[in-house]
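Fold this: Sugar phosphate transporter domain-containing protein
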Amino acid sequence: MEMEKRSNGGVSDVGAWAMNVVSSVGIIMANKQLMSSTGYAFTFATTLTGFHFAVTALVGFVSNSTGYTTSKHVPLWELLWFSIVANMSITGMNLSLMLNSVGFYQITKLSMIPVVCVMEWILHNKQYSKEVKTSVLVVVIGVGVCTVTDVKVNAKGFICACVAVFATSLQQISIGSLQTKYSIGSFELLSKTAPIQALSLLIFGPFIDFYLSGNLVSNYMKTISWGAVLFILLSCSLAVFCNISQYLCIGRFSAVSFQVLGHMKTVCVLTLGWILFDSELTFKNIMGMLVAVGGMVIYSWAVEVEKAVMKATSVGKNSLTEEELKLLRDGMDNHPIKDDKLGESKEVLDV
């Protein structure tokens, strides 16, 4: 966990967030070109995620083999449990996007923040200040205004959305818990879970993708172009940085902070989509983005205030006044410490 210790200047924290934002936005842009009908029409999202984790597992294996990182023990059952939850998150999100409207899909993503808050309260008895709750509400409203359009839902889609939200929230909370429990770094934990996720996604992914798109990935691979291969490799490379930074950020901060500040990526995606892909950017989108950014700024301020209050409280509890020190010293002078070995009393000298 030494890699997760926060530096005094906060440079490494900013670097972790920057890596996550840049890699996440980059992979969305690359996948947009790879998977869109105007691009390379690679409509196999779950299989592509399997490729991502396979490359991540390869990088982790090389890192461990060269001694750059060390492997720490984590029980296999916990790795399997975590991988199942993570894969449920991926599959649930894909099914939710397919079965529901884009508007409802965005609502499910926004609902992760309150769900994470409730789960952390239940599992870890974590409390949140009024300022933090207010800033979270502002972020949710802002992102909702700029992303939510038509909202249509059906029974199957609603169930898939609920599974996706629950699994994703539990996964993000578990990342921080496992890192703390086993004193393991973000990359070391990722290198242990990535092979399991890659194997399971590459086995079951093609069947899920066939259900979602009606196409077989094997048929696509027979006629794949070099352009598609290059974008798949680019997507996998960005995924390594995206996965590492996700584990790194949650290890340093919290699942709630990751969700709140992660909505900055939504704002970046909307802006880049308008610049690069001629996506429509209305006055409603712009106002929503401004509200969301304002909420993120308020959230950052509220978290820092909360930390300062907790630190002051902790110092107050652990420090002793001069009067308390004098009473403690007098008590030691009046009560000699008995030496069991010699069977006699020794007076404590006041130096």
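The chain is about 75% helix and 0% strand. Residues 283-318 form the longest helix (36 residues).
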